[in-house]
Design brief:
about 130 residues, three-stranded antiparallel sheet, two-stranded antiparallel sheet, 5 strands, binds zinc ion
Length: about 130
């Protein structure tokens, strides 16, 4: 199977979407939010009904709140979905896309901007005389 690529759809989170996301309860003490203002779809670039990006940790220990949107549609929706958690090896943290997502898990597709950023970081570490973590 040839590796796929990450969906390139991005979205800017609406103010009312942030507000709505804040009202969702959480069982966790430290709620984690995305640090990005422009979110990129987490799904592989195959046919999918809606784009989805991680927004914050969810209402259950096993779920995350995803921002869902469609091309050309201004509406944004929130979905509290269980995570895929498929692992590449037993020590891995697992796939953070929602369960039963279309396409490959995040560690099996290629995200060109991420690859480029990682390569650049490796180069920087080399120039500083540090070795990248293995
Ligand atoms: Zn997408
Ligand atoms: Zn997955």
């Amino acid at each position: 199977m040839t590796p796929g690529y990450r969906c390139t759809a991005t979205v800017e989170v609406h103010a009312d979407t942030w507000d709505a996301a804040k009202t969702i309860a959480s069982p966790r003490d430290n709620l984690l939010w995305t640090s990005d203002t422009i979110l990129q779809c987490l799904i592989e670039d195959v046919d999918h009904d809606f784009h989805a990006a991680f927004l914050r940790t969810g209402a259950r220990e096993t779920s995350d709140v995803f921002l869902c949107w469609q091309d050309g549609v201004p509406d944004q929706a929130l979905a509290d979905l269980d995570c895929c958690l498929d692992r590449r090896d037993p020590m891995d943290i697992g796939c953070t896309i929602f369960r039963y997502h279309p396409g490959l898990c995040e560690w099996r597709y290629i995200d060109p901007p991420h690859v480029a950023a990682t390569a650049q970081a490796d180069q920087l570490l080399k120039e500083l005389g540090l070795s990248p973590p293995t």
